[in-house]
Prior knowledge:
- By secondary structure, this protein is α/β, with parallel strands linked by helices.
- The protein folds into 2 domains: 2-132, NAD(P)-binding Rossmann-like Domain (Rossmann fold), CATH 3.40.50.720; 136-164 and 191-251 and 265-279, NAD(P)-binding Rossmann-like Domain (Rossmann fold), CATH 3.40.50.720.
- Helix content is 40%, strand content 16%.
- It has helices at 11-22, 57-60, 74-84, 107-122, 143-148, 166-178, 197-208, 219-226, 232-247, 255-260, 267-273, and strands spanning 2-5, 26-31, 44-47, 65-68, 88-92, 126-132, 152-154, 160-161, 186-189, 195-196, 214-216.
- The chain has a 7-stranded parallel beta sheet, sandwiched between helices.
- β1, α1 (11-22) and β2 (26-31) form a beta-alpha-beta unit.
- The longest helix is centred in the middle third of the chain and has 16 residues, at 107-122.
- It starts with a strand and ends in a 6-residue tail after the last helix.
- Residues 7-179 form the NAD(P)-binding domain.
Amino acid sequence: MTFLVTGATGSVGRHVVARLRDAGAQVRAVTRNPGTADFPADVEVVAGDLDRPETLEPALAGIERAYLFPHDDATAFAELAKKAGVRRIVVLSSASAGIEYKREHNSHSHAWHLAVERAVEDSGIACTAIRPGSFASNSLLWADAIRSGSAVRSPYASAAQAPVHEADIAAVAATALLEDGHTGAKYTLSGPASITLAEQVRTIGEALGRETSFEELTPEQGRAELLRNLPEDIVDMLLGYWAEAVDQPEPVLPTVEQVTGRPARTFAQWAADHAADFR
Length: 279
């Protein structure tokens, strides 16, 4: 059986490929630029673009199970997958798709990710949704400041998240692809512990072996700072999450361990894995 992985060169997709390969599965990795994908020789790398669904028809030939990176035209992918005989799709979604996490600041994310999930479900293909909360990799927003030795400038120093390592997101996705019994599941994921933004910055410093500092801004100052690098809708969503997490910390969930049998990686482990990104 060959497994299809879309978004294969992304932070989660690359780990999905690795997990499937480690399990002895044959993997077909879809990427816009196969020449720069840099996968092991036993991974079949093919050209394909979710923005151009017609390019995916050859990639789907002979595939029974697929990992779908979320995309605006998930319906087109699901239709092509059904036509090709795909029997199972594991879709990367977001915790915001859950009604219990819907807020004003993430209403667009809620609707968008829910639509992606439903596009697959409505196709009749067996579907599992992977719904991570805060990605540990969001802290890469601070990489420039930390590399330069400057303070990380942000509002809401005491916002408490439970950041999840992208490798754990991939591990849950790969488990749902490889094993039976996950059809219809919507797995909301978190890291194993609550940690504030200021503590995250300090933890990155510990991984680097040097001190790092956090300068707390007002929400207005923080918004202006973030808008230098991010779109307005993303900035407003982040600020909304952080503001809420000051008084209502992001829940710590056991899902990663329940699904994979292994504890979720800590933020300190993520920082150690990504120390080079901050040097």
